[in-house]
Amino acid sequence: MLLHEKLIPAFTLILATLLFSCNKGGNSGDVKPATKVENQIRESTVSGVKQEPPVYDPKAGGWAVEEWNEKITSSLKKLSTKIINDENWDVFAESISDNFESAFFSIPIVPELIADGKVEVFSKYGDPIEYSSFSSSLKNLISSVALLGNLERASFKVVDIKELDKKKIQSEVIVHFGGKSKGTYRELKGLMKMIWSIKEDSTNLVSVQGTFTASLSTTGKFVDVTESAFGNVVDFKDQFYRGQDYWTSRVEMLTGIDVGGWQGVSIADVNGDNLDDIYIAQPGGLPNRLYVRNSEGGFEDWSKSSFVNFLDSSHGNLFVDLDNDGDQDLVSGVQEGLLIMENNGAGVFSKRVAQLLPSAVPYSITAADYDKDGDLDFHVCCYNRKAGAQHHLFARPVPYHDANNGGRNALFRNDGNWQFKNVTVLEGMEQNNQRFSYAASWEDYDNDGDMDLYIANDFGRNNLYRNDHGAVEGSRFKDVSEEFGVVDIGPGMSVTWGDYDNNGLPDLYVSNMFSSAGNRITSQERFHNSADQNTRNYYKRHARGNSLFTNLGNGFFEDHSISRGVNVGRWAWASRFEDMDGDGYQDIYVANGFITQSDSGDL
Q1: Rounded to the nearest 5 degrees, what angle is found at the Cα of 4, between the Cα atoms of 3 and 5?
Q2: Which region, left, alpha or beta, applies to residue 158 given φ > 0 means left and ψ of -120 to 50 means alpha?
Q3: pLDDT of 54 over the 70 cut
């Protein structure tokens, strides 16, 4: 710790001196004014110097679709604000829809109330209803879920624009209304097709069609208890409370402290008191943190006393009982490889194995007894190759849409007595093993009694390794993702298994990225027009969002992402099947978001 505390300020001082000397030059005659690019570089590398975000210019790329989007989005954002504030929004709606022709909405039939402790979704429609004005169509739509005057959220997101002729365009817009009335949380989501007349400086709404789904919830809201639970933990308060913006403007990236947020959180009961504890991975130079729950509902910092406050850069960690003694041991992924720690049962850890991964950085770890020998084995996702002479700190996928130059994942077999063998090649997992892997999940998807593995990969194809336990010839694992319909070419972030339709078969949900701008641009004929259609489709798929694959029971899956309405998870990172309301059906929770400019709606 002392070494880092002394080195970082010293290094920053040296860097500042060098920058000052470089700007000063040998004499005044040699000094040249810094270029705009040089100033931007300086501002991005010297901590404490703020850099204004670039001004968005929709005309800069020569995309007419983005100029139209800017006009349409500007009008719809103003409408959203006025609807939430109940501020003469109907008058504004009429002002952007002069000479309006018609609106047709398919609105679900929704009861006034539902039973306590439930979440219900409604998508049964009567005949489409016609309205003569835009304001009346919106008023009836919002009233259908009893939210008129009670809205807390209203958003319109333009995902596609097509030119119909020289005077008209059609936009596809994802619509979301949410709020609370009569003790019930209510949401309305749908897709509107809006036709606009266009002039040089303006757009005017001519007609609209829309189909919607409603959901009602009486389960209540989750309450943020971070401050009450961690209020007495000094280091948590000093670091994690401050947030991304605070540290981005203060941390010097050249010290190796990464502010990108690619670190994970692990949950386990480390000391056997039946209370879950929290372990947070940190960038290099900052110690991993173990926060142990106490009997009063708060947390205590056990990082140092448990001997798990590693200063190495860490992305993913897994608590798992590796020696079958009933407590949670730790596999920690650090920059150089893996640290395997034994738990003494009271939350104190000791190192048993240090396993080098010389070519790639471990990002996430998952465990299962894949060989059915009675102890747990583990798989390590290694997103990127290590930085070096020909490798880069950040991913440079080649090709972008179907990259095959990522880090090599590793499968470790538990041979007992704290002996772990890298069996990646031996067991067949070297097949298609140079992707940018973020996360993996084990499941016996084919109900044959052994565990299979699905891997979500960024920048391209995912893997489904079927476990052919007991096969007479060949390797145990075989990648069958393309054969069985789950290759899901896209920016894979995470994966979760669950039987959402309650037919006894595990279904698959993969988190990807959804981008409204990506959807708009990739649908244009001009986009990547030198590429073949398959490549263009792959790029378009990258912007579509999350994927739900229904298990058909014969080894094959069907993509039901759009038909089930679960593809728009925004910039998704992690997801999980879970029965949130206890009705016997598994729901999906998606964690999403990223660093944005002042307008957080750009995700």
Answers
A1: 95
A2: beta
A3: no
